[in-house]
Every structure is written in structure tokens, then in C-alpha cells.
Amino acid sequence: MRRRASLVLLAFAVFFAAMAPTLRWYAFPRLAKIPPNQYQETVLEAKPATLLDYSTLKAEKVERLTIVQTLKGNVEESRKIERDAGRDVVVWDSLSYVIGPDGKMVSKIPERYIFDAHTQDPVHATGEMVDGDPVRREGIEFKWPFLTEKRDYQYFDAQTRTSAPIHYKGTRTFRGLEVYYFEQTVPWTKVPMPKTMPVQGITPEVLAQTGLTRWYTTKRMFWVDPVTGAPVNGEEIHKEELRNARALMGQDTVTVFDGHVKMREDYIAHIVGLVESNRLMVLLLVSYLPWGFTGLALLLLAVSLWLEARSRRPEPAPPVTAPV
Fold first, then answer.
1. Inter-residue contact 133 to 162 (CB < 8 Å)
2. What DSSP state is assigned to residue 140?
3. Are 221 and 235 in contact (CB under 8 A)?
4. Which H or E run contains 154?
5. Cα 62 to Cα 11: distance, rounded to the nearest angstrom
6. Which DSSP state fits 202?
7. Is residue 38 a contact partner of residue 248, using CB atoms and an 8 Å limit?
8. How far apart are CA 187 and CA 203, in angstroms?
9. Per DSSP, what are the bridge partners of residue 155?
């Protein structure tokens, strides 16, 4: 009976020992991925800010500038691309919509971001664009990979349409979470005019005829949960200028926007709560269950060997009684 029990325990030990690496290296890449139908809205604010008043063509201080950023999963497009790519693909149609203090639109920049659902590596396909311009992204945008590492990453900048390193600057604590802090500075760079301008009748083509050029620089900062790769907070110190503007505006350089853009407090709280719930699934697949199954396998193996050793001991001889 002991030997039969030891064989059963040995079989369970082998099963759990096999399940530990299977969860980490087989199940994790297939189960931990971005859903194709995800929808997310984030509101950021610059308080105060400097903003160009297009009615007077002068930069003025304003109390608040609001940026509404939406990410919407395009399920139909992701399925089309998956058929050719042979892997799980997510297509995000995003919109960065800037609202002035009067509630009117300042600018809106649409994007289509196509990437691998698990690794977040870009997937190049027809439709990848920023503000209607075809692009070929290198590196990440919006989200870091699952199990983010303490290293620099290539990060795509939508304004310049180029990628550059975003630097790991250390581990910090943010709202009770241990996060990795990343920072990138984009130097002054000439960038395209937005396709949609805040004043009717003014187009990028009209501005180009005047000789105006648009320049931009930013320092972007992200606090990233290393388990899920999701930023729990983001900020930018953002500046834009129009140059060669003397003929139209009376001076060579005019500030279009200057402000410290921060995520609104209620959206920070929402994202932190969302990350805390999602990171449990990732930790189960990469840490809790694999290590738990490994420990359980070792325990079952030890009990099995103990029972096997006991079953091999000879039964003690019955006591010899002296004849009467």
C-alpha cells in the first residue's frame, strides 16, 4: 500500500515539475497580451500654459490647456493583419485632442499604432500613420513590454516621426507601486504642421507659402509598472514655436505652446487601480504558480521517496515465545 501511494505521489511530483516551466515559457507568451478591443481615455493638463492666440497672432498666458488622449482597439483591422503576420496583433487608433481655455479645439493629431500583442514590438503594415502621414515605427510607443527591464528602450516620437532612446533613470515608489522611471529629451527639431488647424481656412500649405516653420522640443517622463509594462503616470515639459515668422507676425520666433503637461489626478488613480488588478495575472504566470508548483513538486517527491524507503524495510520478526 505504501509503495502504491509513493508511485501516485511521484506521478504528481512529475506533473507539477513539468507545469512550472510550461506556465512560464509556454502559457505566459500566449495568455499575457493586450486585448484587441481595448479602449482607454486619458486626460492631461498644463496649468498654466503659454498658448498662441491665432486671432491676435500673439502668445498669451492661459490658466489651463487640456489634452484628451484616446486609444481605441480596431478589432477588424487587427484580424486582417494577423492573417498575414501569423501572430497576435493589436491595432490602436489614437487621437490626441487639445482643448484651449475657451473649450475650442487647438489641434488634433490622429495616429494608427500597430504592434505585437505580447511583446509590444511594432508590426509594419498598411495604415501605420501619424496625422495621415505613413510612418514606420521603430521601438515602443504608449506602452512598455511585459516584464520591463532596467535598460534604455527605443521610443517613437509622433511629432518628429522618429525614434530615439528613452533612458531608464532608476526605480522609484509611486502610489505604493515599485515602478521604473524613464526619461527622454527631444532637442529642438523642425516638425510638420498639423493637418487640422484651429482657424478655418488656414492649412499647412498656406502656412508653408509664408515661409513659416514649426519647431518642437520636449522632455517626457514615464513611471512604468515593470510587471505589466503599463505607465502609471506620464508628464511632458513641452514647447512649440513658429519660426521665420517676421513677415506675418512681426517677429522671427513666436511661441505656439509652452507648458508642463501632467496627467489629471482622477485618471492617475484609475490607471493605478487597473494596473494593480492586471499585474496579479502576470505574476501568477511568471512567478507565483511556477515557483509554487516547483516547491510542491519537491515536497511530493520527498514524501514519495520516504514512503518508498519505508515500504522496503523488512517487517520485524514476530517475538519468539519459549515452550511451556
1. no
2. B
3. yes
4. strand 153-157
5. 71
6. -
7. no
8. 26
9. 140, 164
In this structure, are residues 38 and 120 in contact, taking their beta carbons and an 8 Å threshold?
no
Cell digits for 141?
510607443
Please tell me the distance from the alpha carbon of residue 214 to that of residue 50, in angstroms, as a whole number: 16
**Contacts of 110 by beta carbon, 8 Å cutoff, 6+ apart:** 93, 94, 95, 129, 130, 131, 132
* Distance of alpha carbon 31 from alpha carbon 289, whole angstroms: 14
**What are the tens digits of pLDDT across the range 157-175?**
999 999 999 999 999 999 9
- One-letter amino acid at 271 equals I
Angle at 46 between CA 41 and CA 52, to 5 degrees: 110
Q: For residue 180, which of 226, 234, 232 has the smallest C-alpha distance?
A: 226
DSSP 162: E
Q: What span, in angstroms and rounded, lies between the C-alpha atoms of 269 and 254?
A: 37
Calpha distance 189→108 (Å, rounded): 20
Q: Which three cell numbers stand for residue 50?
A: 503659454
Q: Which three cell numbers stand for residue 231?
A: 505607465
Overall average pLDDT of the 262-282 stretch: 93
What is the spatial distance between Cα 230 and Cα 147, in angstroms, rounded to a whole number? 10
- The pLDDT tens digits for 219-250 are 999 999 999 999 999 999 999 999 987 767 77
Local confidence band at 110 (pLDDT 50, 70, 90 cut-offs): very high
Residue 211 has pLDDT above 80, yes or no: yes
